[in-house]
Amino acid sequence: MQAILTNQLPITEADLKHKEDITFVVKIFRHYAHEASLTSRQITRFITGLSEITRNSIQYAGKGKVEFFISQRDNGKVYFCAKIADNGRGIPNLEKILNDDDECEGVGIISTSRLVDYFDISTSERGTEVLIGEHLQHHDSISREDIDNWEKHILEEKQEAKSLIELLEAYETIREKENKLENTNKRLKKFVKQLQEKNNELKDFAHVVSHDLKSPLNVIFMASEMLSSYYQDDLGEDAEEITEMMISSAKNMKDLINEYLNYATASAQEDRGEDIDLNEMVKDVISIISIPDHAEIKVGELHKVFFDKIALQQVIQNFLTNAMKYGDKPQVKIQIDSEQDDKFTILKVSDNGPGIPESHHEDIFRLYRTLGDKGKAKKGTGLGLPLIKRIAERNHGKVWLESEMSKGTTFYFAIPHQN
Amino acid sequence: MKNAPSMGKILNEQRNGNTGKQVLVVDDEVSLCFLLRNFLNRMNCKVTCEHTLKGAKNHYSNRKPDLILLDIHLPDGLGLELLEIIRKKDKGTTIILMSSQRDFGKANEKIMDKADFFLQKPFQLKEVEQVIKQYS
Fold this sequence. Notes:
The complex is a heterodimer of chains A (419) and B (136).
Chain A: E1 6-16, H1 19-35, H2 40-61, E2 64-72, E3 78-86, H3 94-98, H4 107-115, E4 118-124, E5 127-135, H5 144-230, H6 237-266, E6 273-277, H7 278-288, E7 295-299, E8 304-308, H8 309-326, E9 332-340, E10 344-351, H9 384-394, E11 398-404, E12 408-416
Helix pairs in contact in A: 1-2, 2-4, 5-6, 6-9, 7-8, 8-9
Chain B: E1 22-26, H1 30-42, E2 46-50, H2 53-62, E3 67-71, E4 73-74, E5 77-78, H3 79-89, E6 94-99, H4 104-107, H5 109-114, E7 117-120, H6 125-135
Parallel strand pairs in B: 1-2, 1-3, 3-6, 6-7
Antiparallel strand pairs in B: 4-5
Helix pairs in contact in B: 2-3
Protein backbone atom coordinates (compact mmCIF):
# COMPACT_ATOMS: atom_id res chain seq x y z
CA MET A 1 0.00 0.00 0.00
CA GLN A 2 1.40 3.38 -0.96
CA ALA A 3 1.26 6.66 0.93
CA ILE A 4 -2.02 8.51 0.90
CA LEU A 5 -2.23 11.44 -1.41
CA THR A 6 -2.46 14.87 0.24
CA ASN A 7 -3.32 18.50 -0.69
CA GLN A 8 -6.25 17.53 -2.74
CA LEU A 9 -7.55 19.99 -5.29
CA PRO A 10 -10.90 18.77 -6.60
CA ILE A 11 -11.37 18.91 -10.39
CA THR A 12 -14.75 17.38 -11.07
CA GLU A 13 -16.90 14.39 -10.22
CA ALA A 14 -19.42 12.09 -11.86
CA ASP A 15 -21.89 9.44 -10.75
CA LEU A 16 -21.67 5.87 -11.97
CA LYS A 17 -24.87 4.03 -12.60
CA HIS A 18 -24.97 2.83 -16.18
CA LYS A 19 -22.38 1.37 -18.50
CA GLU A 20 -22.58 4.56 -20.58
CA ASP A 21 -21.33 6.52 -17.58
CA ILE A 22 -17.94 4.83 -17.98
CA THR A 23 -17.59 6.32 -21.44
CA PHE A 24 -18.63 9.70 -20.05
CA VAL A 25 -16.10 9.50 -17.22
CA VAL A 26 -13.33 8.52 -19.65
CA LYS A 27 -14.27 11.46 -21.83
CA ILE A 28 -14.05 13.86 -18.88
CA PHE A 29 -10.67 12.44 -17.97
CA ARG A 30 -9.38 12.88 -21.52
CA HIS A 31 -10.24 16.60 -21.47
CA TYR A 32 -8.45 17.27 -18.18
CA ALA A 33 -5.57 14.93 -18.94
CA HIS A 34 -4.75 16.93 -22.04
CA GLU A 35 -4.95 20.16 -20.10
CA ALA A 36 -2.70 18.69 -17.40
CA SER A 37 -0.16 17.64 -20.05
CA LEU A 38 -0.23 13.92 -19.23
CA THR A 39 1.60 11.92 -21.88
CA SER A 40 -0.43 9.82 -24.24
CA ARG A 41 1.05 6.71 -22.67
CA GLN A 42 -0.07 7.88 -19.25
CA ILE A 43 -3.49 8.67 -20.58
CA THR A 44 -3.87 5.18 -22.09
CA ARG A 45 -2.77 3.53 -18.87
CA PHE A 46 -5.03 5.67 -16.72
CA ILE A 47 -8.04 5.08 -18.98
CA THR A 48 -7.49 1.32 -18.87
CA GLY A 49 -7.43 1.39 -15.09
CA LEU A 50 -10.29 3.83 -14.78
CA SER A 51 -12.46 1.68 -17.08
CA GLU A 52 -11.68 -1.51 -15.10
CA ILE A 53 -12.42 -0.03 -11.69
CA THR A 54 -15.54 1.90 -12.69
CA ARG A 55 -16.89 -1.23 -14.42
CA ASN A 56 -16.34 -3.18 -11.17
CA SER A 57 -18.23 -0.55 -9.17
CA ILE A 58 -21.26 -0.73 -11.44
CA GLN A 59 -21.08 -4.51 -11.73
CA TYR A 60 -20.62 -5.37 -8.04
CA ALA A 61 -22.07 -2.42 -6.19
CA GLY A 62 -24.72 -1.29 -8.69
CA LYS A 63 -23.56 2.31 -8.54
CA GLY A 64 -20.68 4.48 -7.52
CA LYS A 65 -18.96 7.81 -7.89
CA VAL A 66 -15.79 9.12 -9.49
CA GLU A 67 -13.96 12.18 -8.22
CA PHE A 68 -11.05 13.67 -10.14
CA PHE A 69 -8.56 15.76 -8.25
CA ILE A 70 -4.97 16.90 -8.06
CA SER A 71 -2.88 15.71 -5.20
CA GLN A 72 0.64 16.31 -4.06
CA ARG A 73 2.40 13.53 -2.29
CA ASP A 74 4.72 14.15 0.57
CA ASN A 75 7.60 13.43 -1.79
CA GLY A 76 6.61 16.67 -3.59
CA LYS A 77 5.37 14.98 -6.77
CA VAL A 78 2.09 16.15 -8.19
CA TYR A 79 -0.48 13.56 -9.35
CA PHE A 80 -3.60 13.61 -11.43
CA CYS A 81 -5.95 11.33 -9.51
CA ALA A 82 -9.29 9.64 -9.61
CA LYS A 83 -11.14 8.23 -6.60
CA ILE A 84 -13.69 5.56 -7.53
CA ALA A 85 -15.95 4.82 -4.57
CA ASP A 86 -19.01 2.66 -4.10
CA ASN A 87 -21.27 1.62 -1.22
CA GLY A 88 -21.21 -2.07 -2.06
CA ARG A 89 -20.49 -4.94 0.27
CA GLY A 90 -16.74 -4.64 -0.22
CA ILE A 91 -14.23 -7.13 -1.55
CA PRO A 92 -13.89 -9.95 1.03
CA ASN A 93 -10.80 -11.55 -0.53
CA LEU A 94 -8.98 -8.31 -1.38
CA GLU A 95 -5.78 -9.29 0.34
CA LYS A 96 -5.69 -12.56 -1.54
CA ILE A 97 -6.25 -10.76 -4.79
CA LEU A 98 -3.58 -8.19 -4.16
CA ASN A 99 -1.16 -10.95 -3.25
CA ASP A 100 -1.95 -12.54 -6.59
CA ASP A 101 -3.15 -15.68 -4.87
CA ASP A 102 -6.49 -15.75 -6.57
CA GLU A 103 -5.87 -16.28 -10.23
CA CYS A 104 -9.44 -15.98 -11.27
CA GLU A 105 -10.83 -12.93 -9.51
CA GLY A 106 -9.63 -9.34 -9.34
CA VAL A 107 -7.64 -9.38 -12.53
CA GLY A 108 -8.86 -5.82 -13.25
CA ILE A 109 -7.64 -4.57 -9.86
CA ILE A 110 -4.28 -6.24 -10.21
CA SER A 111 -3.62 -5.02 -13.73
CA THR A 112 -4.72 -1.49 -12.81
CA SER A 113 -2.43 -1.42 -9.82
CA ARG A 114 0.43 -2.37 -12.09
CA LEU A 115 -0.43 0.11 -14.82
CA VAL A 116 -0.84 3.44 -13.05
CA ASP A 117 1.79 5.49 -11.24
CA TYR A 118 -0.22 5.50 -8.03
CA PHE A 119 -2.72 2.94 -6.81
CA ASP A 120 -4.50 2.58 -3.49
CA ILE A 121 -7.55 0.58 -2.50
CA SER A 122 -9.52 0.23 0.71
CA THR A 123 -12.57 -1.94 1.24
CA SER A 124 -15.03 -2.74 4.02
CA GLU A 125 -18.59 -4.00 4.34
CA ARG A 126 -19.76 -0.44 3.68
CA GLY A 127 -18.01 -0.12 0.38
CA THR A 128 -14.81 0.11 -1.62
CA GLU A 129 -12.63 3.07 -2.52
CA VAL A 130 -9.93 2.95 -5.18
CA LEU A 131 -7.43 5.70 -5.80
CA ILE A 132 -5.47 5.83 -9.03
CA GLY A 133 -3.04 8.56 -10.06
CA GLU A 134 -0.55 9.56 -12.72
CA HIS A 135 2.47 11.67 -12.02
CA LEU A 136 2.33 15.12 -13.66
CA GLN A 137 5.91 15.25 -14.77
CA HIS A 138 5.80 18.83 -16.06
CA HIS A 139 4.27 20.35 -12.96
CA ASP A 140 5.89 21.12 -9.61
CA SER A 141 2.57 22.31 -8.29
CA ILE A 142 -1.01 22.87 -9.43
CA SER A 143 -3.14 25.70 -8.13
CA ARG A 144 -6.88 26.23 -8.03
CA GLU A 145 -6.40 28.86 -10.70
CA ASP A 146 -4.71 26.31 -12.96
CA ILE A 147 -7.69 24.00 -12.70
CA ASP A 148 -10.08 26.87 -13.33
CA ASN A 149 -8.09 27.70 -16.46
CA TRP A 150 -8.27 24.08 -17.61
CA GLU A 151 -12.02 24.14 -17.14
CA LYS A 152 -12.32 27.40 -18.96
CA HIS A 153 -10.27 26.05 -21.84
CA ILE A 154 -12.26 22.82 -21.97
CA LEU A 155 -15.50 24.78 -22.02
CA GLU A 156 -14.17 26.98 -24.81
CA GLU A 157 -13.14 23.94 -26.80
CA LYS A 158 -16.52 22.37 -26.19
CA GLN A 159 -18.16 25.59 -27.28
CA GLU A 160 -15.97 25.66 -30.37
CA ALA A 161 -16.84 22.05 -31.07
CA LYS A 162 -20.48 22.87 -30.51
CA SER A 163 -20.22 25.84 -32.84
CA LEU A 164 -18.47 23.67 -35.35
CA ILE A 165 -21.22 21.06 -35.09
CA GLU A 166 -23.85 23.76 -35.38
CA LEU A 167 -22.01 25.19 -38.35
CA LEU A 168 -21.84 21.76 -39.96
CA GLU A 169 -25.52 21.21 -39.26
CA ALA A 170 -26.36 24.62 -40.71
CA TYR A 171 -24.20 23.84 -43.73
CA GLU A 172 -26.01 20.53 -44.15
CA THR A 173 -29.37 22.29 -43.86
CA ILE A 174 -28.30 24.88 -46.42
CA ARG A 175 -27.06 22.15 -48.74
CA GLU A 176 -30.34 20.26 -48.36
CA LYS A 177 -32.29 23.45 -49.03
CA GLU A 178 -30.04 24.26 -51.96
CA ASN A 179 -30.70 20.82 -53.39
CA LYS A 180 -34.42 21.29 -52.86
CA LEU A 181 -34.25 24.73 -54.45
CA GLU A 182 -32.29 23.35 -57.36
CA ASN A 183 -34.88 20.63 -57.86
CA THR A 184 -37.70 23.15 -57.58
CA ASN A 185 -35.91 25.39 -60.06
CA LYS A 186 -35.49 22.49 -62.45
CA ARG A 187 -39.18 21.70 -62.15
CA LEU A 188 -40.03 25.36 -62.56
CA LYS A 189 -37.86 25.63 -65.68
CA LYS A 190 -39.57 22.53 -67.03
CA PHE A 191 -42.98 24.06 -66.33
CA VAL A 192 -42.00 27.35 -67.94
CA LYS A 193 -40.74 25.48 -71.00
CA GLN A 194 -43.95 23.47 -71.16
CA LEU A 195 -45.96 26.63 -70.72
CA GLN A 196 -44.04 28.35 -73.50
CA GLU A 197 -44.57 25.35 -75.74
CA LYS A 198 -48.29 25.33 -74.94
CA ASN A 199 -48.45 29.05 -75.54
CA ASN A 200 -46.73 28.67 -78.89
CA GLU A 201 -48.98 25.76 -79.74
CA LEU A 202 -51.98 27.89 -78.89
CA LYS A 203 -50.64 30.73 -81.01
CA ASP A 204 -49.99 28.36 -83.92
CA PHE A 205 -53.38 26.79 -83.39
CA ALA A 206 -55.06 30.20 -83.51
CA HIS A 207 -53.21 31.03 -86.72
CA VAL A 208 -53.95 27.72 -88.38
CA VAL A 209 -57.61 27.80 -87.40
CA SER A 210 -57.97 31.36 -88.58
CA HIS A 211 -56.16 30.61 -91.82
CA ASP A 212 -58.27 27.54 -92.45
CA LEU A 213 -61.45 29.47 -91.72
CA LYS A 214 -60.52 32.38 -93.93
CA SER A 215 -60.18 30.37 -97.16
CA PRO A 216 -63.71 28.93 -97.22
CA LEU A 217 -64.97 32.28 -95.95
CA ASN A 218 -63.40 33.92 -98.98
CA VAL A 219 -65.42 31.59 -101.22
CA ILE A 220 -68.65 32.41 -99.33
CA PHE A 221 -67.87 36.10 -99.66
CA MET A 222 -67.20 35.96 -103.37
CA ALA A 223 -70.00 33.54 -104.18
CA SER A 224 -72.60 35.65 -102.40
CA GLU A 225 -71.25 38.83 -103.95
CA MET A 226 -71.39 37.31 -107.40
CA LEU A 227 -74.94 36.16 -106.83
CA SER A 228 -75.88 39.62 -105.67
CA SER A 229 -74.03 41.41 -108.48
CA TYR A 230 -74.46 39.24 -111.56
CA TYR A 231 -77.43 37.01 -110.90
CA GLN A 232 -79.62 39.67 -109.33
CA ASP A 233 -82.15 39.42 -112.15
CA ASP A 234 -82.44 35.65 -111.70
CA LEU A 235 -83.09 35.98 -107.99
CA GLY A 236 -86.44 36.64 -106.36
CA GLU A 237 -86.79 39.31 -103.66
CA ASP A 238 -86.35 36.77 -100.84
CA ALA A 239 -83.25 35.26 -102.44
CA GLU A 240 -81.71 38.68 -102.75
CA GLU A 241 -82.32 39.33 -99.07
CA ILE A 242 -80.85 35.96 -98.19
CA THR A 243 -77.76 36.76 -100.25
CA GLU A 244 -77.35 40.05 -98.37
CA MET A 245 -77.62 38.10 -95.12
CA MET A 246 -74.85 35.80 -96.31
CA ILE A 247 -72.62 38.76 -97.13
CA SER A 248 -73.36 40.42 -93.80
CA SER A 249 -72.66 37.21 -91.84
CA ALA A 250 -69.47 36.61 -93.77
CA LYS A 251 -68.30 40.12 -92.81
CA ASN A 252 -69.13 39.42 -89.17
CA MET A 253 -67.21 36.22 -89.31
CA LYS A 254 -64.22 38.01 -90.79
CA ASP A 255 -64.28 40.51 -87.89
CA LEU A 256 -64.62 37.68 -85.40
CA ILE A 257 -61.66 35.80 -86.79
CA ASN A 258 -59.50 38.92 -86.72
CA GLU A 259 -60.51 39.78 -83.17
CA TYR A 260 -60.00 36.22 -82.04
CA LEU A 261 -56.50 36.38 -83.47
CA ASN A 262 -55.91 39.69 -81.68
CA TYR A 263 -57.00 38.14 -78.43
CA ALA A 264 -55.06 34.91 -78.87
CA THR A 265 -51.84 36.69 -79.71
CA ALA A 266 -52.23 39.45 -77.11
CA SER A 267 -51.01 37.24 -74.26
CA ALA A 268 -48.07 35.94 -76.22
CA GLN A 269 -46.69 39.28 -77.28
CA GLU A 270 -44.22 41.10 -75.11
CA ASP A 271 -45.14 44.59 -74.03
CA ARG A 272 -42.68 47.38 -74.65
CA GLY A 273 -43.24 50.42 -72.51
CA GLU A 274 -42.74 53.89 -73.91
CA ASP A 275 -43.78 57.43 -73.08
CA ILE A 276 -47.21 58.17 -74.49
CA ASP A 277 -49.11 61.42 -74.59
CA LEU A 278 -52.72 60.28 -74.20
CA ASN A 279 -53.91 63.43 -76.02
CA GLU A 280 -51.94 62.44 -79.13
CA MET A 281 -52.91 58.80 -78.94
CA VAL A 282 -56.64 59.45 -78.56
CA LYS A 283 -56.46 61.85 -81.52
CA ASP A 284 -54.72 59.14 -83.63
CA VAL A 285 -57.26 56.47 -82.70
CA ILE A 286 -60.20 58.76 -83.49
CA SER A 287 -58.67 59.46 -86.90
CA ILE A 288 -58.49 55.79 -87.87
CA ILE A 289 -61.92 54.60 -86.73
CA SER A 290 -65.02 55.54 -88.64
CA ILE A 291 -67.22 57.77 -86.50
CA PRO A 292 -70.86 57.87 -87.55
CA ASP A 293 -72.52 61.27 -88.01
CA HIS A 294 -74.70 60.78 -84.97
CA ALA A 295 -71.73 60.29 -82.67
CA GLU A 296 -69.83 63.01 -80.85
CA ILE A 297 -66.56 62.50 -79.00
CA LYS A 298 -65.31 65.09 -76.50
CA VAL A 299 -61.79 64.81 -75.15
CA GLY A 300 -60.60 66.55 -71.97
CA GLU A 301 -56.98 67.41 -71.14
CA LEU A 302 -55.27 64.04 -70.79
CA HIS A 303 -52.13 62.92 -68.95
CA LYS A 304 -48.93 61.37 -70.18
CA VAL A 305 -48.33 57.70 -69.40
CA PHE A 306 -45.73 54.97 -69.86
CA PHE A 307 -47.25 51.92 -71.53
CA ASP A 308 -47.14 49.61 -74.56
CA LYS A 309 -48.28 51.75 -77.48
CA ILE A 310 -50.06 49.07 -79.53
CA ALA A 311 -51.80 47.64 -76.47
CA LEU A 312 -53.06 51.06 -75.37
CA GLN A 313 -54.29 51.80 -78.90
CA GLN A 314 -56.27 48.54 -78.77
CA VAL A 315 -57.75 49.56 -75.40
CA ILE A 316 -58.88 53.01 -76.56
CA GLN A 317 -60.14 51.72 -79.91
CA ASN A 318 -62.20 49.01 -78.21
CA PHE A 319 -63.73 51.45 -75.71
CA LEU A 320 -64.71 53.87 -78.48
CA THR A 321 -66.08 51.30 -80.94
CA ASN A 322 -68.08 49.65 -78.14
CA ALA A 323 -69.60 53.00 -77.13
CA MET A 324 -70.61 53.67 -80.73
CA LYS A 325 -71.74 50.11 -81.46
CA TYR A 326 -74.00 49.85 -78.43
CA GLY A 327 -75.21 53.47 -78.28
CA ASP A 328 -79.03 53.60 -78.23
CA LYS A 329 -79.66 57.34 -78.25
CA PRO A 330 -80.20 59.40 -81.41
CA GLN A 331 -77.03 61.30 -80.51
CA VAL A 332 -74.20 59.10 -79.18
CA LYS A 333 -72.07 61.13 -76.78
CA ILE A 334 -68.66 59.99 -75.66
CA GLN A 335 -66.43 61.80 -73.17
CA ILE A 336 -62.75 60.91 -72.66
CA ASP A 337 -60.86 62.13 -69.57
CA SER A 338 -58.00 61.09 -67.37
CA GLU A 339 -57.10 61.51 -63.71
CA GLN A 340 -54.18 60.53 -61.49
CA ASP A 341 -53.70 59.15 -58.01
CA ASP A 342 -50.50 58.08 -56.27
CA LYS A 343 -50.35 54.76 -58.10
CA PHE A 344 -52.19 55.07 -61.38
CA THR A 345 -53.18 57.29 -64.26
CA ILE A 346 -56.82 56.44 -64.93
CA LEU A 347 -58.27 56.80 -68.39
CA LYS A 348 -62.07 57.32 -68.32
CA VAL A 349 -64.34 56.73 -71.30
CA SER A 350 -67.99 57.62 -70.66
CA ASP A 351 -70.96 57.14 -72.97
CA ASN A 352 -74.67 57.90 -72.90
CA GLY A 353 -75.60 54.35 -73.92
CA PRO A 354 -78.16 51.93 -72.48
CA GLY A 355 -76.06 51.13 -69.40
CA ILE A 356 -74.93 47.74 -68.16
CA PRO A 357 -76.78 45.89 -65.37
CA GLU A 358 -74.62 45.47 -62.26
CA SER A 359 -74.91 41.70 -62.45
CA HIS A 360 -72.86 41.85 -65.66
CA HIS A 361 -70.12 44.21 -64.49
CA GLU A 362 -67.65 41.36 -64.06
CA ASP A 363 -69.09 38.96 -66.61
CA ILE A 364 -68.57 41.42 -69.38
CA PHE A 365 -64.77 41.06 -69.09
CA ARG A 366 -64.94 37.31 -69.49
CA LEU A 367 -64.52 35.56 -72.80
CA TYR A 368 -67.52 34.92 -75.02
CA ARG A 369 -70.00 37.11 -73.13
CA THR A 370 -71.86 39.67 -75.20
CA LEU A 371 -74.68 41.41 -73.51
CA GLY A 372 -77.94 42.64 -74.93
CA ASP A 373 -80.99 41.25 -76.56
CA LYS A 374 -79.86 38.58 -79.01
CA GLY A 375 -82.77 39.46 -81.25
CA LYS A 376 -81.27 42.87 -81.83
CA ALA A 377 -78.42 42.51 -84.23
CA LYS A 378 -75.62 44.06 -82.19
CA LYS A 379 -72.40 43.01 -83.79
CA GLY A 380 -70.36 42.33 -80.70
CA THR A 381 -67.64 39.71 -80.87
CA GLY A 382 -67.39 39.53 -77.09
CA LEU A 383 -63.63 39.65 -77.32
CA GLY A 384 -62.91 43.37 -76.99
CA LEU A 385 -63.34 43.74 -73.23
CA PRO A 386 -61.64 40.43 -72.34
CA LEU A 387 -58.72 41.65 -74.47
CA ILE A 388 -58.64 44.94 -72.52
CA LYS A 389 -58.69 43.02 -69.25
CA ARG A 390 -55.86 40.83 -70.42
CA ILE A 391 -53.81 43.88 -71.38
CA ALA A 392 -54.52 45.47 -67.97
CA GLU A 393 -53.53 42.35 -66.03
CA ARG A 394 -50.40 41.84 -68.07
CA ASN A 395 -49.25 45.38 -67.26
CA HIS A 396 -50.25 45.47 -63.57
CA GLY A 397 -53.14 47.77 -64.43
CA LYS A 398 -56.87 47.54 -63.77
CA VAL A 399 -60.09 47.89 -65.70
CA TRP A 400 -63.59 48.38 -64.32
CA LEU A 401 -66.81 50.18 -65.02
CA GLU A 402 -69.58 52.23 -63.46
CA SER A 403 -72.97 52.31 -65.08
CA GLU A 404 -76.43 53.71 -64.68
CA MET A 405 -79.21 52.01 -66.61
CA SER A 406 -80.47 54.00 -69.61
CA LYS A 407 -78.07 56.87 -68.75
CA GLY A 408 -74.71 55.48 -69.71
CA THR A 409 -71.50 53.74 -68.71
CA THR A 410 -68.01 54.87 -67.74
CA PHE A 411 -65.10 52.50 -68.32
CA TYR A 412 -61.93 53.04 -66.29
CA PHE A 413 -58.51 51.83 -67.37
CA ALA A 414 -55.82 52.28 -64.71
CA ILE A 415 -52.24 52.53 -65.96
CA PRO A 416 -49.58 52.12 -63.24
CA HIS A 417 -46.97 54.85 -62.92
CA GLN A 418 -43.54 53.90 -64.17
CA ASN A 419 -41.24 52.72 -61.36
CA MET B 1 -46.32 48.20 -101.48
CA LYS B 2 -49.06 50.24 -103.10
CA ASN B 3 -52.16 51.34 -101.32
CA ALA B 4 -55.44 49.63 -102.10
CA PRO B 5 -57.58 51.66 -104.45
CA SER B 6 -60.85 52.92 -103.02
CA MET B 7 -63.69 50.51 -103.59
CA GLY B 8 -66.11 51.26 -106.39
CA LYS B 9 -69.47 49.73 -107.10
CA ILE B 10 -69.51 46.81 -109.45
CA LEU B 11 -71.56 47.95 -112.34
CA ASN B 12 -73.16 45.72 -114.91
CA GLU B 13 -71.45 47.53 -117.76
CA GLN B 14 -68.14 46.22 -116.43
CA ARG B 15 -69.21 42.88 -117.83
CA ASN B 16 -68.24 44.35 -121.11
CA GLY B 17 -65.11 46.12 -119.83
CA ASN B 18 -62.43 44.81 -122.10
CA THR B 19 -59.05 44.22 -120.57
CA GLY B 20 -58.28 41.24 -122.82
CA LYS B 21 -55.58 40.10 -120.39
CA GLN B 22 -54.18 36.63 -119.95
CA VAL B 23 -54.61 35.88 -116.25
CA LEU B 24 -53.21 32.96 -114.28
CA VAL B 25 -54.97 32.19 -110.98
CA VAL B 26 -52.91 29.99 -108.63
CA ASP B 27 -54.81 28.76 -105.58
CA ASP B 28 -55.49 25.32 -104.14
CA GLU B 29 -59.05 26.34 -103.28
CA VAL B 30 -60.87 25.09 -106.37
CA SER B 31 -64.10 26.96 -105.59
CA LEU B 32 -62.22 30.24 -105.28
CA CYS B 33 -60.55 29.61 -108.65
CA PHE B 34 -63.95 28.90 -110.17
CA LEU B 35 -65.40 32.16 -108.83
CA LEU B 36 -62.37 34.22 -109.83
CA ARG B 37 -62.46 32.73 -113.33
CA ASN B 38 -66.17 33.51 -113.62
CA PHE B 39 -65.63 37.06 -112.37
CA LEU B 40 -62.52 37.78 -114.45
CA ASN B 41 -64.14 36.35 -117.58
CA ARG B 42 -66.78 39.01 -117.12
CA MET B 43 -63.95 41.53 -117.26
CA ASN B 44 -62.97 39.93 -120.56
CA CYS B 45 -59.87 38.32 -119.16
CA LYS B 46 -58.73 34.95 -120.37
CA VAL B 47 -58.25 32.93 -117.22
CA THR B 48 -56.26 29.76 -116.49
CA CYS B 49 -56.33 28.18 -113.03
CA GLU B 50 -53.57 26.14 -111.41
CA HIS B 51 -53.85 24.55 -107.96
CA THR B 52 -50.21 23.64 -107.30
CA LEU B 53 -46.81 25.33 -107.45
CA LYS B 54 -45.60 22.75 -109.95
CA GLY B 55 -48.59 23.34 -112.24
CA ALA B 56 -48.07 27.11 -112.01
CA LYS B 57 -44.35 26.80 -112.87
CA ASN B 58 -45.16 24.65 -115.90
CA HIS B 59 -47.83 27.02 -117.06
CA TYR B 60 -45.53 30.03 -116.72
CA SER B 61 -42.73 28.39 -118.67
CA ASN B 62 -45.12 27.51 -121.53
CA ARG B 63 -47.24 30.58 -121.71
CA LYS B 64 -46.35 33.86 -120.03
CA PRO B 65 -49.49 35.48 -118.60
CA ASP B 66 -49.99 39.25 -118.20
CA LEU B 67 -51.14 38.95 -114.64
CA ILE B 68 -50.87 36.29 -111.95
CA LEU B 69 -53.08 36.04 -108.86
CA LEU B 70 -50.78 33.96 -106.68
CA ASP B 71 -51.68 32.36 -103.35
CA ILE B 72 -48.69 32.21 -100.99
CA HIS B 73 -49.47 28.87 -99.36
CA LEU B 74 -49.78 26.05 -101.89
CA PRO B 75 -49.90 22.33 -101.18
CA ASP B 76 -46.44 21.63 -102.71
CA GLY B 77 -44.62 24.80 -101.72
CA LEU B 78 -44.74 28.55 -101.36
CA GLY B 79 -46.08 30.74 -104.13
CA LEU B 80 -43.15 33.04 -103.27
CA GLU B 81 -40.86 30.57 -105.05
CA LEU B 82 -42.63 31.29 -108.32
CA LEU B 83 -42.41 35.02 -107.57
CA GLU B 84 -38.62 34.71 -107.21
CA ILE B 85 -38.29 32.69 -110.44
CA ILE B 86 -40.35 35.13 -112.45
CA ARG B 87 -38.73 38.28 -111.10
CA LYS B 88 -35.24 37.05 -112.00
CA LYS B 89 -35.96 37.52 -115.68
CA ASP B 90 -39.34 39.17 -115.96
CA LYS B 91 -40.38 42.48 -114.46
CA GLY B 92 -43.35 42.96 -116.75
CA THR B 93 -45.79 40.35 -115.48
CA THR B 94 -48.09 41.77 -112.83
CA ILE B 95 -48.01 39.57 -109.76
CA ILE B 96 -50.69 39.92 -107.07
CA LEU B 97 -50.06 37.87 -103.96
CA MET B 98 -52.97 36.47 -101.96
CA SER B 99 -52.96 35.11 -98.41
CA SER B 100 -55.04 34.88 -95.29
CA GLN B 101 -51.92 35.66 -93.25
CA ARG B 102 -52.57 38.96 -91.54
CA ASP B 103 -50.38 41.93 -92.33
CA PHE B 104 -48.24 39.86 -94.65
CA GLY B 105 -47.46 42.91 -96.74
CA LYS B 106 -46.33 44.98 -93.76
CA ALA B 107 -44.23 42.17 -92.34
CA ASN B 108 -42.57 41.25 -95.63
CA GLU B 109 -41.61 44.49 -97.31
CA LYS B 110 -38.71 42.92 -99.27
CA ILE B 111 -41.03 40.36 -100.81
CA MET B 112 -43.59 43.01 -101.52
CA ASP B 113 -40.97 44.99 -103.45
CA LYS B 114 -41.02 42.17 -105.97
CA ALA B 115 -44.80 41.80 -106.08
CA ASP B 116 -47.23 44.44 -107.32
CA PHE B 117 -50.00 44.09 -104.77
CA PHE B 118 -51.19 42.03 -101.86
CA LEU B 119 -54.79 40.87 -101.47
CA GLN B 120 -55.70 39.97 -97.89
CA LYS B 121 -58.12 37.05 -97.71
CA PRO B 122 -61.03 37.10 -97.34
CA PHE B 123 -61.34 39.80 -100.00
CA GLN B 124 -64.31 41.18 -101.81
CA LEU B 125 -64.94 41.28 -105.55
CA LYS B 126 -64.68 45.06 -105.49
CA GLU B 127 -61.07 44.78 -104.34
CA VAL B 128 -60.18 42.30 -107.07
CA GLU B 129 -61.85 44.44 -109.66
CA GLN B 130 -59.98 47.59 -108.61
CA VAL B 131 -56.64 45.82 -108.53
CA ILE B 132 -57.12 44.25 -111.97
CA LYS B 133 -58.15 47.57 -113.42
CA GLN B 134 -55.24 49.37 -111.82
CA TYR B 135 -52.65 46.93 -113.19
CA SER B 136 -54.15 46.34 -116.62
